[in-house]
Amino acid sequence: MERSVRNLALCAVFVATALTAVGALILSDGASSGANNPPSTLLGTVAVDPTDDPAATTPTPVWAIAEANGRYYIGGNFTEVGGESQPYLAAIEVSTGRLDPAFRPVLGNPGGAAEVLALALSPDGNDLYIGGRFKSVDGTTRNRLAKLDARTGALDTAFNPNASAIVESIVVDTSG
User: Fold this and answer.
1) Which residues of 97-122 are buried (b: 16+ CB within 10 A; e: fewer)?
2) pTM higher than the cut 0.85
3) Whether the Cβ atoms of residue 90 and residue 73 lie closer than 8 Å to each other
4) By three-state DSSP, how is residue 45 classified?
5) How far apart are CA 137 and CA 59, in angstroms?
6) Exposed (0-12), middle (13-18) or buried (19+): which is 39, by Cβ within 10 Å?
7) H helix runs in the chain, sequence order
8) Nearest Cα to 114, choosing from 129, 130, 101, 128?
9) What phi, psi does 32 have (nearest 5°)?
């Protein structure tokens, strides 16, 4: 399967130069948003490589992408990246195109996917805000919105807005 670099549209052209370990990203339109539907803007999909998973038949969505600290952060409804288990949220090293072993947050959602639908970085790139359908991060309750250390993926336990509905977009202002 081709593992070449693809261009992505993220308000401007975003050239994904290091996603070869993830696979090709393909632009596509998603279904309309709602309680059981994904958001309406699909940024890409993690392509399936039959040699990595012979049972896989369908690409899985990547709903959000952010870049900082020499990494591409991706959020979506995937369970593996580059053949390694890392569901819903991952960091890919720009220099190698490989999954970052230091960034391994575990998202949970009893009874459903812990899908990440939105990502935003703080202005200094130190914090990564994630939003979506998840209910926990690293075993700690975080309803649909959380703040992580962008370098380690560690949960910021002081930030707990407890969102009452699915978070589909995040905007961080200059004050954070």
Assistant:
1) bebbeebbbbbbbeeebbbbbbbbbb
2) no
3) yes
4) strand
5) 25
6) buried
7) none
8) 130
9) -70, 150
The burial of 125, by beta-carbon neighbours within 10 Å (0-12 exposed, 13-18 middle, 19 or more buried), is given as middle
Between CA 46 and CA 65, with CA 55 as vertex, the angle to 5 degrees is: 10
- For residue range 118-159, list pLDDT tens digits in order: 999 999 999 999 999 999 999 999 999 999 999 999 999 999
Unique residue bearing structure tokens 């996603």: 19
User: % helix / strand / coil in the chain, to the nearest 5?
Assistant: 0, 35, 65
pLDDT digit string, tens, across residues 25-75:
322 333 333 444 444 443 444 444 444 445 555 667 899 999 999 999 999
- Of the candidates 100, 165, 97, the one whose C-alpha atom is nearest the C-alpha of residue 132 is 165
